[in-house]
Amino acid sequence: MDTEKTGSKKILVAPLNWGLGHATRCIPVINTLINNGFHPVLAGDGESLILLKKEFPRLKNYQLPSYNIQYSRKGKYLKYKLLMNLPRIQKIIKKERMEVEKIVEKEQISGIISDNRFGVYSNKAPSVYITHQVNVLSGLTSFFTSKFHQKIISKYQECWVPDFKGDNNLAGKLSQIGHTRINLKYIGPLSRFEDKNILVKERKYQIMVLLSGPEPQRTLLEEKLLTELKDFTKKVLFIRGVISDKERIFSDNKNIVIVNYLLQNDLQKTIAESEIIISRSGYSTVMDLSVMQAKAFFIPTPGQEEQKYLATYLEKKGIAPYSSQDEFSINDLEKITVYKGFKTKKTVREHSIPLTVFKY
Predict the structure, then answer these.
(1) How far apart are CA 65 and CA 215, in angstroms?
(2) What is the pLDDT along the chain (360 residues), one digit of tens a residue?
(3) Same domain as 49, residue 81
(4) What spatial distance separates the first Cα and last Cα of the chain, rounded to whole Å?
(5) What is the distance, to the nearest Å, from the Cα of residue 9 to the centroid of all Cα atoms in its chain?
(6) For residues 179 and 164, what is the distance between their CA atoms, to the nearest angstrom?
(7) Whether residue 132 is found in the same domain as residue 269
(8) I need a surface site. Which of 144, 149, 247, 327 has the fewest CB within 10 A?
(9) Is 270 inside any structural domain?
(10) How far is CA 237 from the centre of its chain?
(11) How many domains does the chain have?
(12) How far is CA 99 from CA 95, 110, 277, in A?
């Protein structure tokens, strides 16, 4: 894109703080904006904003009101907990809209990209929504939650879907929809990782644990996996998925290296050096592991229908096995040998992020 036409326009980028996935998939979007002469301005809250500040320390950033979304300790109660919190979340969305208007005015924002933040849009600037969940699975209420989400999406000029259109996709029915008035743009999977060959002389780790997601379920899975791995005799890299000033922490087991987090380049390198990846089946993780052509074992977040669906979908395609959190055993990893793993390296870099919405 001609930078003279962009004129260093400022684009507000704001991911939802629900785990780190919404932030990580905004990384290639931010890089694309920079490479095309735009000036991204970051907005968000919690660990997702902290992560983007670490990845892009020179970019200006703003704090948005936090939704403070937490899971229940028992996944089956998640839907009810979210319903109980709905009035509070609606108030926060109104505050978020007010803050966004202030930022638009102060920074002279020329465009907005919201990754699943319902209140991040403005009538004063072209607004884009990023989601892979055009259809929102919620059990018996899936029809209503999908229609509700589609109504939210319709407020935006465009909706960028980080997947391929048609049957050969990563998100299954989550990202696919028939006739709709929503201006959908299928832009291909968004991964923070560069599509490049990494020279690996040897596999450094037999297992990499890659945790993420909201509390308390992140901690519950961490405790479960550390118990399962306590007698494991081969090398394990355990990434807690907690953004902290302290990157590495002490482990009682000499075979387990525990780190709080890794930034983009180090994480890509260590995934390439790992034989098996144990992780949640969140879509951003799925996109990252796809571009890395990794061998994965998924443990869906209890109560999150989307993750359970994705894990089942990928298992049926012969890509990766999965287990529920309660039933997981280290012996389940033996199932991986009969699965083909991810084979596609196609990412958004082979497609086009449609920045023309911000061009004029």
Answers:
(1) 18
(2) 444 455 589 999 999 998 899 999 999 999 999 999 999 999 999 999 999 999 999 999 999 999 876 666 665 656 666 666 778 889 999 999 999 999 999 999 999 999 999 999 999 999 999 999 999 988 888 899 899 999 999 999 999 999 999 888 999 999 998 878 899 999 999 998 876 566 677 789 999 999 988 888 999 999 999 999 998 999 999 999 998 766 667 677 789 999 999 988 899 999 999 999 999 999 999 999 999 999 999 999 998 899 999 999 999 999 999 999 999 999 999 999 999 999 866 655 544 688 989 986
(3) yes
(4) 12
(5) 26
(6) 17
(7) no
(8) 327
(9) yes
(10) 21
(11) 2
(12) 6, 16, 39
Residue 40 within a domain: yes
**Cα 244 to chain center, whole Å?**
19
Rounded CA-CA distance 13/203 in Å is 36
**133 within a domain of the structure (yes/no):** yes
Same domain, 53 and 170: yes
Rounded Cα distance between 72 and 78, Å, is 6
CATH number of the domain to which 48 belongs: 3.40.50.2000
Cα 10 to Cα 112: distance, rounded to the nearest angstrom? 9
Tokens of 287: 């996109």
Residue among 332, 338, 334 at smallest CA distance from 319: 338
pTM listed for this prediction: 0.90
Both 158 and 220 in one domain: the answer is no
Q: Tell me, yes or no, whether 215 and 182 share the same domain.
A: no
Do 148 and 28 share a structural domain?
Answer: yes
Token pair of 237, please? 């890299």
Q: Which long-range contacts does 106-112 make (Cβ < 8 Å, 24+ apart)?
A: 107/10, 107/12, 107/41, 107/60, 108/10, 109/10, 109/11, 109/12, 109/41, 110/9, 110/10, 110/11, 110/358, 111/9, 111/10, 111/11, 111/12, 111/38, 111/357, 111/358, 112/11, 112/12, 112/14
Q: What share of the chain is helix, strand, coil (3-state, %, to 5)?
A: 40, 15, 45
Q: Which domain holds residue 81?
A: 3-190+347-358
